[in-house]
Design a protein that fits this description.
By secondary structure, the chain is of the alpha+beta class. The protein has 4 domains: about 190 residues, no CATH class; about 70 residues; about 170 residues, no CATH class; about 210 residues, no CATH class. It has 23 helices and 11 strands. It is elongated, with a radius of gyration of 32 Å. Its main location: membrane.
Length: about 675
């Protein structure tokens, strides 16, 4: 008997809370899809860092568990409140509290199981999409193949059951403590319209607004560090909740003043509905705002990384293989023998980079380049300081080597007069080199050289062919300079074999403190912020490092997207279920409006406004909170990476995607709400 009743009630709950059911299906599908990535043989074959994907998705899963537990707990309590009279009736006809509690728990377990099964099927589809995207990042062909991994299924099931257990335990205890009177009148509690301590609430509202401004100032001033970031974020979260305490108070005070505008076109009805809803859902609305804010910022970061991966990552390395040595006489025999053994060499060039104890361009960049002038934490260089951005001296290359390297990677050769020079620089720094050419003089052997061009093609300038820049001079001018370090650039047939990077590094003399065993050269690696070579700067194998870079980008992007999608769906589910579940209550209120003379079209218009205000409130608050931070992040990202995109693009795309999902939920809620209100 109890089982049949539980099944009937579970079916009814699936119908009444369809949005919740769909969200749990999507959430379980996403969990299964991302867990399948961990166990996928196809993905693991491309993974450059063992365990990294598992760690990142595992970290994301912690946040997902917290949010889904909150959602399930919220929904269970919500359903408990809506069905409290039904439970009270069960007690009146002789059922025990334990039986009622068990009945409700079984219903929710059945509802969870019903959402999990289609979720796994959805997860199989999402797994194919994610894997195809993963392969496309590495420029690999992917053949669709259904890979149903039992390990991924068990992991997803375990997490799913764990989430439900956490939510059900608390609700079961609450249900057991309630008596018949509590259950019979629980759903009759009206939304409060009193406004105690209104002045204090309004003050707290302004305090929260001032904190938002303070937070933005801290970001733009560059005053957010590891030491204070957690305190600042905690203050931001608290301010979000304080803001909602003040909003309802302002609306109530506005209504109580009884200004003429309150009574126009159902405005009083809407204000009364909205203020009471905000007042009874202050914590929930604050939480939804935080979720939307996190989703918008997460989406912005994902857009940044995807754009960089698509536009700039491949430009970081121009040559198939590059090897660095502080020994200016190095012939790289051991490394070249190893390369010959593992692949076929098409072309190679062994050459020197030169210096003449000058650091004119270095100092010019320290004084003018935004990396140093706009970044308070950047290390400036003078005679008593060292920095790993640039070498100790300006770096030079002779024209013959430069043209040989240009031929190797398919660029046209250039010409240069005996008294001229060229600058090859990373594209984002071109304007600074043009400024140097116009404002400064390059003097060698007492004679001023004339700048005859600035080139910006990808040229491996993160500690190899200079650090950010290299000065090209005639072979005659170089004769008066000292060799600084040696390089070999190698062009090979096809892609480098897996593991060549590691094998070559074993032959390197590179040490952990960036010093080489035979000299005092401090190895530089440029001002790149996203893809920095660091300790790998002495040995560069393009295929190996590009795969590593793409993997790291993907490994970072996937969990962020994972969390953002779940956060959005959870937040929108709360908004939808709240309104749809109250539609019966609103049905009476709208019937009163009908009796007062409003036609169906006018009532539909009021419904649209009511839902619109309710839906837009947390979204607009999230946009107001996140937009400054997101645009600041985007601006710095464009500056420091040289990506040719507007700083508005990343946040705009994130907002559009969120708005698309938002619109789907809103339309579904609006259609269902109208149907519930108008049906007889």
């Amino acid at each position: 008997m109890l089982g049949k009743l539980a099944i009937r009630n579970a079916k009814r709950s699936t119908r009444d809370y369809l949005v919740y059911f769909i969200t749990m299906t999507i959430a379980s599908g996403l969990m299964f899809a991302f867990n399948s990535m961990i166990f996928s043989k196809d993905v693991r074959a491309l993974c450059a860092i063992g365990g990294a994907m598992e760690a990142m998705i595992g970290l994301a899963s912690i946040f997902i568990i917290i949010i889904l537990t909150w959602l399930i707990n919220y929904m269970i309590n919500f359903m408990m409140e809506k069905r409290s009279k039904e439970f009270g009736t069960y007690l009146l006809i002789g059922m025990k509290k334990k039986e009622v509690s068990n009945l409700f728990m079984i219903e929710n377990q059945l509802l969870g199981a019903a959402a999990f099964i289609p979720g796994v099927l959805l997860g199989l589809l999402l797994q194919q999409i994610l894997t195809a995207i993963f392969y496309s990042v590495f420029n690999k062909d992917y053949q669709i193949s259904i890979e149903f991994n039992i390990g991924a299924l068990l992991l997803t099931l375990g997490l799913y059951v764990f989430i439900y257990i956490l939510a059900l335990i608390r609700s079961k205890k609450k249900l057991k403590k309630m008596n018949i009177n509590d259950m019979m009148y629980m759903d009759k509690q009206n939304q409060s319209f009193d406004d105690k301590n209104s002045k204090m609430k309004q003050i707290l509202f302004f305090v929260s607004i001032l904190y938002f401004i303070f937070f933005d100032v801290m970001i733009f001033g560059g005053w957010i560090y590891i030491e204070n970031v957690f305190f600042l974020i905690a203050g931001l979260i608290i301010s979000v909740y304080l803001m909602y305490y003040g909003i309802s108070s302002f609306i109530i005070q506005y209504i109580k003043k009884e200004k003429s505008g309150v009574y126009k076109s159902g405005k009083l009805f809407l204000l009364r509905q909205f203020s009471s809803k905000i007042k009874t859902m202050q914590f929930t609305m604050g939480t939804l705002t935080i979720l939307f804010t996190a989703s918008l910022l997460g989406g912005t970061v994902s857009m940044m990384l995807c754009d960089y991966n698509k536009k700039e990552l491949d430009k970081a390395i121009a040559f198939d293989i590059m090897l660095f040595s502080d020994n200016v006489q190095d012939d790289f025999k051991n490394q070249l023998d190893l390369i010959n053994k593992e692949t076929e060499i098409k072309d190679k060039r062994i050459y020197n980079i030169y210096e003449d104890k000058a650091e004119d361009i270095n100092q010019f960049l320290y004084n003018n380049y935004y990396y140093f002038t706009e970044n308070p934490s950047a290390i400036y260089k003078d005679k008593d300081r060292n920095t790993n951005e640039y070498f100790d001296y300006d770096t030079y290359m002779k024209l013959s080597d430069y043209n040989a390297l240009r031929r190797m990677i398919g660029y046209e050769e250039v010409t240069l007069s005996e008294d001229g020079y060229l600058i090859h620089v990373k594209e984002r720094m071109k304007e600074y080199m043009l400024k140097y050419r116009n404002e400064e003089k390059l003097v060698k052997e007492g004679k001023e050289l004339k700048c005859e061009g600035v080139y910006t093609e990808p040229f491996s300038q993160s500690g190899q062919n200079g650090s950010d820049y290299i000065i090209i001079v005639s072979d005659r001018v170089v004769e008066k300079m000292s060799p600084f370090y040696s390089l070999v650039a190698v062009d090979i047939e096809g892609d480098a074999p897996e593991g060549l990077q590691e094998n070559l590094e074993k032959l390197s003399k590179f040490k952990d403190d960036y010093k080489y065993e035979t000299s005092n050269i401090t190895h530089a690696y440029g001002t790149d912020q996203i893809f920095s070579f660091g300790e790998t700067g002495s040995t560069i194998v393009k295929t190996n490092l590009m795969n590593l870079g793409k993997f790291v980008m993907t490994m970072t992007t996937y969990p962020i997207v994972y969390m953002a999608l779940v956060f959005v769906c959870v937040a929108l589910t709360i908004l939808s279920v709240q309104q749809l579940s109250d539609s019966n209550k609103y049905k009476f209120r709208y019937s009163v409006l009908s009796k007062l003379g409003l036609n169906e079209k006018e009532i539909d218009n009021i419904i649209l406004k009511q839902l619109g205000v309710y839906y837009l409130c947390p979204l607009l608050a999230a946009v107001a909170i996140s937009i400054v931070t997101a645009l600041f992040m985007s601006k710095k990202f464009v500056l420091y990476t040289g990506v040719h995109s507007s700083m508005f693009l990343y946040y705009g795309m994130s907002l559009i995607l969120l708005g698309f999902i938002y619109t789907i939920y809103f339309i579904a809620t609006y259609v269902s709400f109208k149907r519930n209100v108008h049906e007889s």
